[in-house]
Amino acid sequence: MATKVVDLRSDTVTKPSEAMRAAMAAADVDDDVLGADPTACRFEAEMARIMGKEAALFVPSGTMANLISVLAHCDARGSEVILGDDSHVHVYEHGGISTLGGVHPRTVPNNPDGTMDVDRIVAAIRSTDGALYYPTTRLICLENTHGNSGGKCLTVEYTDKVGEVAKAHGLKLHIDGARIFNASV
């Protein structure tokens, strides 16, 4: 019986093995800002291919990735993001979206499985009639796997349903996917 524990709580608690450290030390590197880092370019191309996207961007942390995504989708100060009350972006990161982007978090209760009731998401979407008085809803955030719900995986069906809600209301959908490959397993 195996006795080794693999800790998948976070992308920041994983310790690189000696082989991983050796690979990092031997990696072919150059200036990433100028697009000249061959390792970063290969990594971004591979992630885009795996995820079925036209491009990918390597950033050093999940926090930075979520911040960039929220600010890209909520491109006007006074925007609002709908997200779970126990989601990572809300509990640990919303200071960044608020301070740097002027983005207002609007929480919906997370269920024990990490989902939010779709009818509650819909109810949280603000009408543009109140645009003078209220933030403008621009984004819905999900988290897969949901860390504060014990690493529960959101189903494809649930994610698609929330995506349909977002489309129907002219909103964007962001998935905090720090553990997305754990979810795929």
UniProtKB/TrEMBL annotation:
Which SUPFAM superfamilies does the entry link to?
PLP-dependent transferases
What keywords are annotated for this sequence in UniProt?
Answer: Lyase, Pyridoxal phosphate
**Which residue numbers delimit the Aromatic amino acid beta-eliminating lyase/threonine aldolase domain?**
7-184
- So which residues are the signal peptide here? none
What is the recorded name of this protein?
Aromatic amino acid beta-eliminating lyase/threonine aldolase domain-containing protein
Manganese as a keyword?
Answer: no
Provide the Gene Ontology terms for cellular component. cytosol
Which PANTHER family does this chain map to? AROMATIC AMINO ACID BETA-ELIMINATING LYASE_THREONINE ALDOLASE DOMAIN-CONTAINING PROTEIN, L-THREONINE ALDOLASE-RELATED
The Swiss-Prot or TrEMBL record annotates one GO molecular function as: L-allo-threonine aldolase activity
Name the InterPro entries for this protein. ArAA_b-elim_lyase/Thr_aldolase (IPR001597), Low_specificity_L-TA-like (IPR023603), PyrdxlP-dep_Trfase (IPR015424), PyrdxlP-dep_Trfase_major (IPR015421)
Cofactor(s) recorded for this entry are: pyridoxal 5'-phosphate
Q: What is the lineage of its organism?
A: Eukaryota, Viridiplantae, Streptophyta, Embryophyta, Tracheophyta
GO term, biological process aspect, one: L-threonine catabolic process
In which family does this protein belong, per the annotation? Belongs to the threonine aldolase family.
Query: Iron-sulfur among the record's keywords?
Result: no
| NCBIfam families found in the cross-reference section | GntG_guanitoxin
